[in-house]
Amino acid sequence: xxxxxxxxxxxxxxxxxxxxxxxxxxxxxxxxxxxxxxxxxxxxxxxxxxxxxxxxxxxxxxxxxxxxxxxxxxxxxxxxxxxxxxxxxxxxxxxxxxxxxxxxxxxxxxxxxxxxxxxxxxxxxxxxxxxxxxxxxxxxxxxxxxxxxxxxxxxxxxxxxxxxxxxxxxxxxxxxxxxxxxxxxxxxxxxxxxxxxxxxxxxxxxxxxxxxxxxxxxxxxxxxxxxxxxxxxxxxxxxxxxxxxxxxxxxxxxxxxxxxxxxxxxxxxxxxxxxxxxxxxxxxxxxxxxxxxxxxxxxxxxxxxxxxxxxxxxxxxxxxxxxxxxxxxxxxxxxxxx
Length: 338
Ligand SMILES: NC(=O)c1ccc[n+]([C@@H]2O[C@H](COP(=O)([O-])OP(=O)(O)OC[C@H]3O[C@@H](n4cnc5c(N)ncnc54)[C@H](OP(=O)(O)O)[C@@H]3O)[C@@H](O)[C@H]2O)c1
Description:
The chain has helices at residues 34-46, 62-72, 76-79, 105-119, 138-150, 164-173, 194-201, 240-260, 264-273, 288-295, 304-313, 326-329, and strands at residues 5-7, 14-16, 19-21, 51-55, 83-88, 90-92, 98-101, 124-129, 154-160, 176-182, 204-208, 279-283. The protein is of the alpha/beta class. An eight-stranded parallel barrel has the order 3-4-5-8-9-10-11-12, surrounded by six helices. The chain binds NADP nicotinamide-adenine-dinucleotide phosphate (NAP). NADP nicotinamide-adenine-dinucleotide phosphate binds next to strand 12 and helix 10. The site of NADP nicotinamide-adenine-dinucleotide phosphate (NAP) has 29 residues, from strand 12 and helix 10.
């Protein structure tokens, strides 16, 4: 299979049409198997996936060290094609509690120094603050990344979960490759004013939560036991009646998937791929099996009739429950309505 490619905006690199998000290999979705995680990164690289996303606060360095190990042990020819996308800025205590964000220039450079070491690389391809620090103007945070670019430690500036006004201010400070933000059949908020803004400014979208953290993967059932540290144990969309409502949407989607001879996850990923050449879904696969299923989405073509049927089965605002618990929603600049 030849991997399709997309551009990370008008100023960023060319990347595989699907990126691999490594978060779940270390944190937030229950136990993961380290050897299988490394094997999944290798399998992704072999399949032509070039974009690998992580964050320094995913189990406090664990995810970066895991990715570093995977890169170190990959064949050199594949390692050279790999592009790292790293988030920083989230402050967490030893129990994993979220304590805010730090986007001060000195902090940005400090975070980057640790990330370079943990990843074992001489530069980071795309560097972004995970959430806007409300106490630091975005110009200062982006300006610090621009200084790291001048010194060769970073290649491109990215953004994460910020709204249209912040995107404009950031883009006026330095070229922005992409905005990383949640986008899926049941998280379509960006279509209102964020996506028109990124398109106007030539910024790509790296979409996460394309399977709504497994909820619309077709593999998630009411009987799933979630550990206390699992994000989904606290996510409004996975609770009680909301969960049942959302799983009913999945069953409507399953009928369409079955008619096309594909899986629910594949149709959900294919739908995001079909929303525009400027959108790169980040797949949260933690095993080679899930990765293989996700990559199959690249072969799914959705025609106008398919898209209409999907829209009917899962209308734009059909999901029950917000995409984050309220305390975390408050940190989303992208959700602050002008
Ligand atoms: N910028 C931000 O604020 C932000 C926030 C969250 C995530 N991210 C990034 O985006 C990446 C993707 O997000 P996400 O992990 O929430 O995405 P996702 O793809 O919506 O959810 C991944 C979960 O779906 C389940 N799943 C079921 N079938 C799957 C399949 N075929 N392929 C992949 N996963 C399947 C997996 O659970 P099982 O393994 O149990 O099957 C996995 O834990 C993350 O890894 C992270 O790098 C960024």
